[in-house]
Amino acid sequence: MCGIVGYVGDDTAGQIVHGGLENLDYRGYDSAGMALLGDDGLTITKREGEVSNLSVPTVTGATCGIGHTRWSTHGPPTDTNAHPHTGMSDDIAVVHNGIIENYEELRATLVADGHEFTSETDTEVVPHLLERELDDGRDLRAALESAVAKLEGSYAIATVCADTDRIVATRHESPLVVGHDDDAAFLASDVTAFVEHTRDVTYLEDGDIVTLADGDATVYRDGEVVDRPIDTVEWDATAAEKGGYDHYMLKEIHEQPTALRQALSGRIDLDRGTADLDLTFPAGFLDSLDEIQFVACGTSFYAAEYAAQLIESFADVRATAELASEYTVDGGGDPRRTLTVAVTQSGETADTLGALRRANGGGIRTLAVTNTLGSTVTRDADDSLFIRAGPEIGVAATKTFASQVTTLALLSVFVAQERNALSAADARDVLTDLRGLPGAVQQVLDDAGDVREAATAFVDASAYFFVGRAHGYPVALEGALKLKEIAYDHAEGFAAGELKHGPLALVTEDTPILAVLTEGTRPEETLNNVAEAQTRGAPAIGIVDGSVETNSLDTAFSVPSLGPVTPLVANVYFQLFAYAIAKQQGRSIDKPRNLAKSVTVE
Ligand code: M6R
């Protein structure tokens, strides 16, 4: 949620900051604003709505500026609540991501001291605190250090002040990354903001204070300068562009074959029948495990549910998937014989990080499975495994789900082999299926026109029900989530057998049933459940692979059989279906209402 941009350099800061905000508006698009430091001091401009509503003011000599795009938590999306926020004067400007939990108490103290507030946000306490610290004679860096010591909650904060030609920023449980160019320094909550200018980045750590001045960045820790490594981002700006597609989401759906090849690259040895992952666990650790717990949210949770099934079937170990926001370590087994795997595309989801920290606190070994190098989850977990999907800009996750399940399938084989639970021959079968994924997904993508045409008949449906069994069940849940997110229609995913235990009451001729009917998902039984809905008038759409007779379906789409990962290929039809429905309804597909790509609040 929310995006921060900062720039100090020789170029016109207004254009660069605005460009950065445009690149980041998938993080939040309720309002946007910027503060530019020019020859005549600070110019602040902010506006309700998307970044495109915000015009760049003409500010002479502005070579330093910060900007913000907001996903509202405290206070509705209005011009006044938009960031940057100021104190009693307009000489200081602050942008903030996260939530300041003790803001009411701080605000009351500041009001008692005579400070007047204009917004309903938690953020506004920060510029007022900074004013107080500056009045006490501190410079901006010392003032920020002292001010944040009073904050509880999570934050990434950047500030500029009228009489100091610099940006000062800090983070606590909210991402912040610095970009280095020859004569310029950048700051952002996500490298996407400035990757068109530089790919050399430093990921800040919690508690770091960074100063951007004279085109350079200096990181401080407890008042001392510290060295932080400079990493090079592997992808370039074109990876974060639409590339001729109408929406990022459609582009990302079509990028799946490439993303899957990247996820698999160098990780399969078919001759030996092994999954080669760059992971090292203590000797005997995997072998002695009693349980693997996955924790995740949203789409990542459905990928985790899929993975838990794969691990149980391959690796002969209990595996569970828990919603991160519900996860507790209480009542669990022996922490030394448990592995907790946090699955998160962004690596910044607060609920998932919270669960991971609870696991760490309980003495459990942890593994992060993520798309994002340098993200918080990679620091908090004992080990990390990357899904290598490349940047995903569409708020609705598509290619990252495919890459998560694929990487987790490799992990399942890896764990199974360490436990001697899977023979090389059986592993080879699974790995061969995984190798087939990019081509199989491409076949489905080649069918996109047929899905678009078929979806036309269902665009006015009153609800959509997705059903599946076994690996088809998480895919049904994911299919329904995509439709909800981008079409704003009522959609639910059910374990197919559960339909008759209640949801059948919702079924009418206006509620299409979309079913996964592929090998390994007990398609005969699911087909019976589909027939029960059809008897009540519901049209039925099935994703089939020839493993059962499916003439009774109203519409069928075929996928090649790839053993346990066939439902992952079926999911691509669900993505295309959701996209087609949302497109026909003219929805804001890449930036659905009320949502943000990364949810950094609990
Ligand atoms: O970055 P994460 O994978 O941790 O994000 C988790 C969810 O917020 C995310 O999957 C969300 O459900 C997506 N919008 C789904 O399309």
Structural class: alpha/beta
Name the CATH architecture of the largest domain. Answer: 4-Layer Sandwich
State the distance separating the first and last CA atoms.
11 Å
Please report the number of helical segments.
16
As for the number of domains, it is 3
Cα-atom radius of gyration: 25 Å
Helix amount:
25-40%
Major β-sheet profile? 8 strands, antiparallel
Silhouette: globular
Main sheet: strand order? 3-2-4-1-9-8-10-14
User: What is the name of the CATH topology of the largest domain?
Assistant: Glutamine Phosphoribosylpyrophosphate, subunit 1, domain 1
Mean pLDDT: 95
- Main CATH class of the largest domain: Alpha Beta
Low-confidence stretches: none
Q: How much of the residues is beta strand, in percent?
A: 15-25%
CATH superfamily of the largest domain: Aminohydrolase, N-terminal nucleophile (Ntn) domain
Bound molecules: 5-amino-5-deoxy-1-O-phosphono-D-mannitol
Active site: 2 (nucleophile), 597 (for fru-6p isomerization activity)
Subcellular location: Cytoplasm
Subunit structure: Homodimer.
GO biological process, one term: carbohydrate metabolic process
Summarize the structure.
Helix content is 32%, strand content 24%.
Structure explained in plain terms:
The chain is α/β, with parallel strands linked by helices and 602 residues long. It folds into three domains: 3-239, Aminohydrolase, N-terminal nucleophile (Ntn) domain (Glutamine Phosphoribosylpyrophosphate, subunit 1, domain 1, 4-Layer Sandwich), CATH 3.60.20.10; 242-435, Rossmann fold, CATH 3.40.50; 438-602, Rossmann fold, CATH 3.40.50.10490. The chain is 32% helix and 24% strand. The protein contains 16 helices and 26 strands. The protein has an eight-stranded antiparallel β-sheet with strand order 3-2-4-1-9-8-10-14, covered by helices on one side. A six-stranded antiparallel β-sheet has the order 5-6-7-11-12-13. Helix 9 (376-380) links the parallel strand 20 (365-370) and strand 21. It is globular and about 80 Å long. The model has no long low-confidence stretch (mean pLDDT 95). The structure holds 5-amino-5-deoxy-1-O-phosphono-D-mannitol. Residues 297-300, 344-346, 349, 352, 395-397, 485, 595, 598-599 line the site of 5-amino-5-deoxy-1-O-phosphono-D-mannitol. This is Glutamine--fructose-6-phosphate aminotransferase [isomerizing]. Residues 281-421, 454-592 form the SIS domain. Homodimer. It catalyses: D-fructose 6-phosphate + L-glutamine = D-glucosamine 6-phosphate + L-glutamate. It comes from Natrialba taiwanensis DSM 12281.
